[in-house]
Amino acid sequence: MIEFGPLSTTIRKKQGPEPPPPVLLDYAATRAAFSWEEVAGQLVAPLAGPLNVGELAVRRGGTLLWYGSEGQVERFTSDELVARSGRAARAFASLGVKTGDRVAFMCKGIPELAFGVLGALRLGAVPLVLGRAKTPEPVRAFLLKSGARVLVCEPDVRPLVEAAAAPGPLPLETIVLVARGGTRMAGPSKDVAWDELVPAQSPDFDAVPLPPEAPAWMHPIDTLTGPAVAAHHSAFPLFSSAGLALDLRPGDGFLALALPGDTLFVPYGLLAPLLRGAKTFLFEDPVRFNRYGNLEDPVHVWLSAGRGLDVVLHLDPGLGLLLSKCRHIAVAHPYDLDFTALTRFSYGSPLHPVWIPRELGSIQAAEFRAFDIMVGSVGRALPGSEIKIDEASGCLAVRLGPSVPFTGYWEDVGTQEKRVKNGWFITDLPAKMDPDGYAWIAS
Known about the structure:
alpha/beta
């Protein structure tokens, strides 16, 4: 039973310098007038015709700001993202990667990871970004389930990959080693070096246009479930949600605190801010980074898991200085109710909850910047999205369609049949909705 107690009362936003008006000012009117055709027009992309989300991302004028663990700072313009991802696409093609083939990544948050993911997308390959596991079992499970032909990784995880292959062959044909700032480690003869393979390629590359429903990227769920697959039409909900839910606009500094392998990393750590023409931050190790209060570049919008924000604040108290200058701070469910309530006046913005179902790949509900926050709720459905409580299970459900990048679980029919019923994705989250449309997920 979900209690609508004191924490469900509204809170008022902190007073301060007048920020630009919210992107979404009138929820009912925006929802009534919303159309995916208008989103496609803003994105200058065909709603029903061939497209490529990686190509759209690098062509929208967004930039990448990288902060390394040893104090390095590197900035990559939109033109450099086009060129470097083009080189990566050509490099993968030279290894025999074709449209639909999977390319796995096991790297820290380094620029080569971004170039590789964008390059694989532009080629029409399907990137799978894995976290840096500590044991070989999950590595083996994810590589087997995805059928990845190529793995891009750093030398220090190469022994783990070798251990993952010990019980039996993996589908990998080539391993590309990225040795940024580290010592190269000798590997088997099939290994190639990123800095020998990729820079030698031409930056000119014509992206492969694909049907909107074609697989774009996949992300791991668990070792027993097939990876969740997002389609190229993800460009539309990512572009739209970044504006409506995150209040993100061209030129903003955007920081998504997400480790590679996290649900947030590909859609909101890379694609959504680039699609909006924003400046997206990439950190080699965002959890252990301890200079948030001294960043050389302004951050206007922050997104993280709610619990992740709490952890990083304890590790780097200077983060509070950064947050005090943010126009909008979004935290993904699950989040700590008391922490959210207590910090409502601490920063430049109160913490706005958003709901990003891990399989679905984009924000489906949010507390919007223009409105008081119902602490404990995950907000209302985004314009273009539809959520409800499934009568059979009592769990929160999302209607599949243009608002949802998810197209299914890779080669996992059993989980697909369990979760998808009559055009709705049924989560395992017991919830209730109040008369105003706010969703409340049981803790």
